[in-house]
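User: Can you write out an input/output pair for a complex, sequences first and structure second?

Assistant: Here is one pair. Inputs:
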Amino acid sequence: MRGSPLLRAGLVLLALFALLLPLRSLTSSRAPGEVMSEAPTSKVTRVRLVLTATSAPFHFAISHLGKVIWEGACNENSCTKELALPFPPEGIDLLVAASWPAEKEAALRVEVTPNDTPAIAQTLWGTARVDDVLTFVPTR
Amino acid sequence: MKKLALSAAFLLAALAPASAAERVVIASFSSVLTEIAEKVGGDQVVVFGLVRPGVDPHEYEPTPADLKKVSAARLILTNGRNLENYLNKVQQASGEKAELLRVGDELPGLTSDPHWWNSVSNVEGATRIVRDALSRLDPAGAADFAKNAQTYLAGLEELQRWARREVAELPRDRRILVTAHEAFQYFAREFGFRNLAIEGVNSESEPSNRHVAELIDRMKKENVKAIFVESTLNPKVTEEITRETGAKIGGILYADGLGKGEAGTYAGMIRHNVSTIVEALK
């Protein structure tokens, strides 16, 4: 501990600075006018999606909050997938698009089952294609 | 210049030759209803839009020139839901000879909020009401009115589809719409928002300090990112709310009917409002 006084002073300053950071976070509060952080995101839940169409094959794309979460071709009348999605009590909106090769009326049933809650189903009708937003709100 | 043009249109309607004189003259006290009447009526009607785009219907009072136009009308379109407190004057001017249609009173499922036009579904209902009224007054034109209404309704359906897709980009638990006055209840219901308002249903009423304090408290709890204003709102109140909550001003919304520029049509107004809300709350 007999180093140069300059070195000791530097070490003390470093120690003080290291203490300052946690102290600041403990004592400071949000200043008025400061932009708030993002709203707390809702809990991510396992969600089972089932698409059932009146005719097969069909192509589809399902989007949630502007992002495609499931897309592809379904060669049978029904296709299923499990996904992890935020599912608030207010529910979710899914943008559902599907198309069939034949120019005739078709229907697509979309069934959503959030973890441990009853299934919620909605149906879209269209000629050769459907493309709309469906809302799924938990029933319990 | 506008007054001159309107007077000229009025004179033309009144002094027109027999075929044109058979056109149904409509006096409209709503900028949205004026657009509906023009689109559905086509060239078989003459529409006097008395509450013009950008005019606050809460503050509008008919002038003697407006009442003169009312006296020539066979159909008078009003918002209803007690928004117009001058209907006695209108009825007097009309001499009871025109059909007075309070469109908002005919729409199903409405509350005390008179701002029914902020829901596209309600405007679809209003279009059918205007179509039926015109067909009653001019049965010979009913087929044309039905065709025109169908075209206008198809546009509204497309608008609604577009709005649903835009709003779908917002998580449903973040759809909290804080607006200048309580004019977006039907919009909120249609798109899954909760509507908190700074002022009441009428934009002329000043919010109490207690109401503002409660609103600030709730906004903090709900972590609301933005509030939406109108040109009529006291800026001091807005400043206090943004300062206390950290929320930003999300933009100006058209609450009371058509505006100017991009909001000069119904579709433009809805597109502006939806885009402004989604962009600010994303």
